Amino acid sequence: MIEYSNRRIKLNGGIILDNFRFYVPTDIRFGKDRLASELTQVLDTFGKTVLIVYGGGSIKKNGLYDQVIDLLEKNQNNIVELSGVEPNPRIETVRRGVELCRENQVDVILAVGGGSTIDCSKVVAAGFYSEEDPWEFIVGKNGYQGDALPIVTILTLAATGSEMNAGAVISNMATNQKLGVGGPAMMPKVSFLDPTTTFTVPAYQTAAGSADILSHLFESYFNVTEGTDIQDFVSEGIMRAVIKNCPVALETPNDYDARANLMWASSLALNGLTRNGKHGVWSCHAMEHELSAFYDITHGVGLAILTPRWMEYVLNEQTVTKFVEFAKNVWGIEDENQFTAAKKGIQATYDFFKACGIPMTLPEVGIDEEKFAEMAQQAVAHSTIKTDAFVPLTEADVEAIYRSSLTESSFA
Amino acid sequence: MIEYSNRRIKLNGGIILDNFRFYVPTDIRFGKDRLASELTQVLDTFGKTVLIVYGGGSIKKNGLYDQVIDLLEKNQNNIVELSGVEPNPRIETVRRGVELCRENQVDVILAVGGGSTIDCSKVVAAGFYSEEDPWEFIVGKNGYQGDALPIVTILTLAATGSEMNAGAVISNMATNQKLGVGGPAMMPKVSFLDPTTTFTVPAYQTAAGSADILSHLFESYFNVTEGTDIQDFVSEGIMRAVIKNCPVALETPNDYDARANLMWASSLALNGLTRNGKHGVWSCHAMEHELSAFYDITHGVGLAILTPRWMEYVLNEQTVTKFVEFAKNVWGIEDENQFTAAKKGIQATYDFFKACGIPMTLPEVGIDEEKFAEMAQQAVAHSTIKTDAFVPLTEADVEAIYRSSLTESSFA
Q: Inter-chain contact B234–A16, Cβ cutoff 8 Å?
């Protein structure tokens, strides 16, 4: 019979950090000039027929596509291609990928791109083995527990973290749904993270990707579970690294170390490290997914717009301590008055996104109030933010946060 | 042809963070009350004959041994035991373990203990498949590249991080050698991290373990490679978590969250996360290994004694910036004068260890100057600190650092 200290039980009613499992067997190959000597060796462990998945062709402009094709041809691989994966990947594209895998008896999927391409690849990999249509297990509540084709990734955008986790987000524009799904077999086996592949990422996407990384960190950092110092202090460290390096990458797109730090931040922000031991659901992602589902905007931009408004909205007597820590440990901001310190931290977050060139109001990305009520309803319907968020959010709360994003804001 | 920004090349002659591989497939089961439902299930995936490895019997006092035996008996496992693993595990014990595995056709090794027990288990696991005597591949320079028996661990001490990496340190008292060895197959398959198993760890061991964790972080943090913000900022976060939670665990040994943070810190401090992308060798471990090899002292205590003296010794115009960052980001100490700030950070480190009850001079742990010269020679001979350390160290440097540890110190 284990006895816990009275101190803790007094402090928080006996609530301690949650049990968790941390099992992230993705083999990360980080650095430059690795593909020539390692890519085909890795692929050969899974088989000769490769489905290459990619997006809109940026990899054709920067030479990565040619390099990969050349390596695979010299290695006598059978190459199948799924191109044109959308920024918010669609279920139709996933279905097309599953067909290609079945028709060609694909052995391994090689995702060359950012989170959208990798997410699409994951659901194709699962769909190959699934008897259901992929949309069925996406809308299901149990994730995907079956087999999947092995996935190797070559990451070209520091943003979603999909290269080192088992989750994916797929959109269905017919039903205005953008939903997440995950399963152990969907985790990439090997991910190549070469910072030089992101040298050509435009400023807007670099900033949006950094906002996505920060949002992943924020969503777990602002959480009700106590006692998770490791997770929180590690998260603050990664936040600081992104805040330091994103402006460097914007000013000097081929700064290797800046790109390297953003890239590694992307993977660590969403592989469980800053999240495990904590319960409750994310807030901003649930609200943003509706913006993307209805208006197909850039995910990271939607998150950047909503986040500071959400922070201000949930700031209260119960949450202020966490915001004070955030202001101090991430932004170096202190103030005798707790709420002043907290608001300055929120302002710093807003100012950072703005300085990175992100449009910080909804009208700037083509969204007006017309569908606020409908999107707010969907945000609550597609998640459990009404009960399990850091601060629970009703439809009215979500609508208020959308509304506060109509014009420029000032917090401090 | 990739072009790097001139800025970086100007700054550091084109030196960027190193390529690295991060592949840590240990399945971490973190939290309380998991063994009853998960342990035998995990073991059964490898086989029925289990070698249980443990140390001096603390697990018999706290009930963990009985619990494990009970679970395995009910599961009809064949149980083989290797007990009495030393705090600095010895090659003779390893050889005894290999014999037991071969005689009993062991399928899986269950290490129940701290780093010593797990390290011993790793080399037994490798020794089972090796045609050489284990000491041969330990003294070899190429690590261990062969197969190993699968290892499952139940961690009972937050310290070495052995539960989530592929390394081990084994002592040979006959030759006064304490040497590290590692290999991919030696990484534990599954590690159970239950903070409650550390509730009964005595204060002295809790403090020494925390010093060991901090030392692992320091050894990689103070490093010549530039551009490793993620690694460094994450490391600072883990340092802060240890510095916050160790005193809580000392005052309230059954504080779950404090023990949980120390335990998770142990694993993350030495699984590559804070180290990858950096080159060069560790300094304090090389110097401390000789203290342990000659005097068999507690590893973490030796590290705590040497570390602040080493910090002061290597503080100079080139390294001061890093020490200023350390003082600010870890201890919250700032000063207009760089060297003053740096020294205050070193003083804080010393004071922290002292406040944790660690004896902070060598004579307090039974070491006088008699063997300083010999140990300094060995420290340089067994490592590459003379060429590859943060600040290269000769035999004379090492001896000076030993000498400065003879009496109480004041740095700031």
A: no
Q: How big is the CA angle at A74 (ends A73 and A80), to the nearest 5 degrees?
A: 15
Beta bridge partners of B155: B113, B193
Tokens 């030759």 belong to B175
Kind and range of the H or E run holding A167: strand A167-172
Nearest CA in chain A to B272: A28
| A188 and A248 co-located in one domain | no
What is residue A187's DSSP assignment?
Answer: S
How many CA atoms lie within 13 Å of B338's alpha carbon, on the beta-carbon side?
10
* Element at A110 (helix H, strand E): strand A108-113
Nearest chain B residue (CA) to A31 = B19
Output A174-179 pairs: Cβ under 8 A, ≥24 positions apart: A176/A293, A176/A294, A176/A378, A177/A139, A177/A293, A177/A382, A178/A88, A178/A289, A178/A290, A178/A292, A178/A293, A179/A138, A179/A139, A179/A289, A179/A382
- Which residues have C-beta within 8 Å of that of residue A265, sequence separation ≥ 6? A158, A213, A238, A241, A242, A245, B230
**Among the three residues A176, A198, A220, which one is the final residue of a domain in this structure?**
A198
Structure tokens at B165: 């990496």
- A316: which residues sit within 8 A by CB, 6+ positions away? A391
Q: Which of the pair, B199 or A4, is modelled with greater confidence? A: B199
Taking the Cβ of residue A1 and every Cβ of chain B, the question of whether any pair is shorter than 8 Å is answered with no
Helices (H), B140-227: 203-221
Q: Given B182, B198, B214, which residue is the final one in a domain?
A: B198
Which residues does chain B have within 8 Å of residue A31's beta carbon, measured at their own beta carbons? Answer: 18-20, 277
Residues 6 or more apart whose CB falls under 8 angstroms from that of B254 comprise A2, A3, A4, A5, B196, B199
Residue B14 lies in a domain: no
Among B200, B264, B275, B328, which would you mutate to test the A interface (most chain A Cβ atoms within 10 Å of its Cβ)? Answer: B264
> Which residues 237-296 of chain B have a CB within 8 Å of chain A?
237-238, 240-241, 244-245, 252-257, 260-261, 264-265, 268, 273, 276-277
Structure tokens at A186: 């969907």
Kindly state whether residues B220 and B327 are assigned to the same domain: yes
pLDDT digits (tens, 9 = 90+) for B176-218: 888 899 999 999 999 999 999 999 999 999 999 999 999 999 9
Instruction: Please name the residues in contact with A347: beta carbons below 8 A apart, sequence gap of 6 or more.
Output: A308, A410, A411, A412
- Considering only alpha carbons, which residue of chain B is nearest residue A198? B2
Task: For residue A190, give the amino acid letter.
Answer: V
Q: Chain A closest CA to B103's CA: distance in Å?
A: 33
Q: What is the pLDDT of residues A311-337, one digit of tens each?
A: 999 999 999 999 999 999 999 999 999
Chain segment A254-301, per-residue pLDDT in tens: 999 999 999 999 999 999 999 999 999 999 999 999 998 899 899 999
Alpha carbons A167 and A21: distance in angstroms, whole number? 16
Residue B4 in domain: no
In CATH, what number is assigned to the domain containing residue A98? 3.40.50.1970
Q: Cα B197 to chain center, whole Å?
A: 19
Nearest-neighbour CA in chain B from A172: distance (Å): 34
DSSP A18: P
Domain that holds residue B396: 203-404
Same domain for A164 and A215: no
Cβ–Cβ gap B23/A22 under 8 Å? no
Q: How many Å separate Cα B327 from the centre of its chain?
A: 23
Contact (Cβ atoms closer than 8 angstroms) between residue B8 and residue A257: yes
Q: Are B261 and A19 a contacting pair at CB < 8 A? A: no
Check if the interface score ipTM surpasses 0.90.
yes
Residue B105: is its pLDDT beyond 60? Answer: yes
Residues 177-196 of A with CB under 8 A from B: 196
Say if residues B297 and B364 touch (Cβ distance below 8 Å): no
Whether residues A252 and A300 share a domain: the answer is: yes
